[in-house]
Amino acid sequence: MNITTTSNPMVSQPYLVREVVKETYDTFTLTLEPGTGANGTLFQPGQFSMLWVFGVGELPISISGPPSQHDKLVYTVRSVGQATHALVSQDAGCGVGVRGPFGVGWPAEKAQGRDVIVVAGGIGLAPLRPLIYEILSNREAYGRLVILYGARSPRDLLYRKELAAWARHRDTQVLVTVDYGGLAWRGHVGVVTTLFKYARLQPSRSTAMVCGPEIMMRFVARELEGHGLARKDIYLSMERNMKCAVGFCGHCQYGPHFICKDGPIFPYEQLRPLLEKHEL
Amino acid sequence: METLERIIAEHSFFAGLDPEFVALMVGCASNVVFKAGTYILKEGDPANTFYLIRAGKVAVEVVAPQHKPIIVSTLEVGELLGWSWLMPPFQWKFHARAVSDVRAIALDGKCLRTKCEENHDLGYEVLKRFAQIIEERLEATRLQLLDIYAVRR
């Protein structure tokens, strides 16, 4: 797939906020459309953009919308700091600078013909959503799709209606769990790794794609290995403090890798020696 | 018709158990049913039973002061509920509530403890299986304690 980027990756393109939808009490989905002088953007599932909130700062945010829609960009953002709060507080019509897309996406083409196991934790479902769209829109190219999703509590669950809709697709299993549930919650309770015992897996013909807090990904990767998946068939999405997004500044260096340029998606076999290093 | 012996022998928890031991366990087993919403066990009560869940879902709950009960885990078909019968003081540490109608095999812990004392080979097989489950749940609990989805500032 050809990816359209600006000639200078450090220059933002003008985009306008079309809408901001509240997903949970602290998480919002923004839809941006190209402003004057900006073209549509092609991206691979798993790639990210640098979003510039004028007067506040620039943020790396994974694209969470369908890769087939080039006339808009969708991002799901958790409002946890000054810049993210400013971003999700934008009104429709406000301008946002967009650089990118950047980074290496999920190996969607490489996974064709195989089962795909998607494991998401918390906001980690957002960078995986374009991949799920891609698989569901090209369903015959893939085997079974297993989606395992864990969140802190029922009120933290993202995309509830979509999760239910995905579960209705053929050869698709969606399992959702929360770490803690109230009495009204009738679904699974337990960390995301506890879902594996209910998942229908065919490890030798599966590719796993995992996104969530790093510690969760470490446990999930170990669980996947325990179920017989090869390390080369497990992919993780890493996160570090990204600034330039093109491997110049070194802020996101992780061992020998730059997360922005070499990642954020990496094969587990490449990351494994680094994941257990203290304070890396 | 499914016999208790066959159900126990085919349950994943007892997979590979010597038929002689299965026969010993059957002497301590019975079929039980819990309607949705009923408590299967309550914190502080004597722990004399454990359950192999055959159908339905069970919520394990902790009661916190001035707070509604919090569900800390759920257990489903093929899973096992309860190990407090195995160790003194033989009291339940949590509540367990049937979320939906639950069918289970109840095993009398006192009866099984006696048989394990009499036959240490059986005791070792039972403990090996419980140790595996305890290890899995301990790991899950450690991960849960980290509260990994919380905002770090």
What tags apply to this protein structure?
heterodimer; A: 280 residues; alpha/beta; Elongation Factor Tu (Ef-tu), domain 3; Rossmann fold; seven-stranded mixed beta sheet; six-stranded antiparallel beta sheet; 6 helices; 19% helix; 30% strand; B: 153 residues; alpha+beta; Jelly Rolls; globular
Which residues of chain B sit in consecutive blocks of at least 5 with pLDDT less than 50? Answer: none
At the fourth CATH level, what is the homologous superfamily of the largest domain in chain A?
Answer: Nucleotide-binding domain of ferredoxin-NADP reductase (FNR) module
Shape of chain A: globular
Return the structural class of chain B.
alpha+beta
Q: How far apart are the termini of chain B?
A: 59 Å
- Main sheet properties of chain B: 4 strands, antiparallel
Number of helices of chain B: 4
The strand order across the widest sheet of chain B is: 1-8-3-6
- Along the chain, the helix and strand elements of chain A come as EEEEEHEEHEHEEEHEEEHEH
Text of the CATH class of the largest domain in chain A:
Alpha Beta
What is the gyration radius of chain A calculated from CA atoms?
A: 18 Å
The oligomeric state of the chains shown is heterodimer
Tell me the CATH superfamily of chain B.
Jelly Rolls
Beta strand count of chain B: 8
Please give the alpha-carbon distance between the first and last residues of chain A. Answer: 33 Å
> What CATH first level of chain B would be assigned?
Mainly Beta
Total helices of chain A: the number is 6
Describe what you observe in this structure.
Chain A is an alpha/beta fold. Chain A folds into 2 domains: 13-102, Elongation Factor Tu (Ef-tu), domain 3 (Beta Barrel); 115-275, 3-Layer(aba) Sandwich (Rossmann fold). Chain A has 6 helices and 15 strands. Chain A has helices at 82-88, 125-137, 160-167, 214-226, 259-262, 268-275; strands at 13-22, 27-34, 48-53, 57-62, 73-78, 95-102, 115-121, 145-151, 172-178, 188-189, 206-211, 234-237, 253-254, 257-258, 265-267. In chain A, the strands form 3 sheets. Chain A has a 7-stranded mixed β-sheet, sandwiched between helices. Chain A has a 6-stranded antiparallel β-sheet with strand order 4-3-6-1-2-5. In chain A, strand 8, helix 3 and strand 9 form a beta-alpha-beta unit. With 153 residues, chain B is an alpha+beta fold. Chain B has one domain: Jelly Rolls (Sandwich). Helices cover 33% and strands 26% of the residues of chain B. Chain B has 4 helices and 8 strands. Chain B has helices spanning 4-10, 19-26, 109-118, 120-145, and strands at 29-34, 39-41, 49-55, 58-62, 70-75, 80-81, 95-98, 102-108. Chain B has a 4-stranded antiparallel β-sheet with strand order 1-8-3-6. In chain B, strands 2-7-4-5 form a 4-stranded antiparallel β-sheet, with no helix packed on it. In chain B, helix 1 packs across helix 2 and helix 3 crosses helix 4. The model of chain B has no long low-confidence stretch (mean pLDDT 92). Chain A binds chain B through residues 78, 80, 121-123, 150-152, 156, 179-183, 185-191, 193-194, 197-198, 212-213, 215-216, 219, and chain B through 57, 59-60, 68-74, 76, 78-79, 99-100, 139-140, 143-144, 146-151, 153.
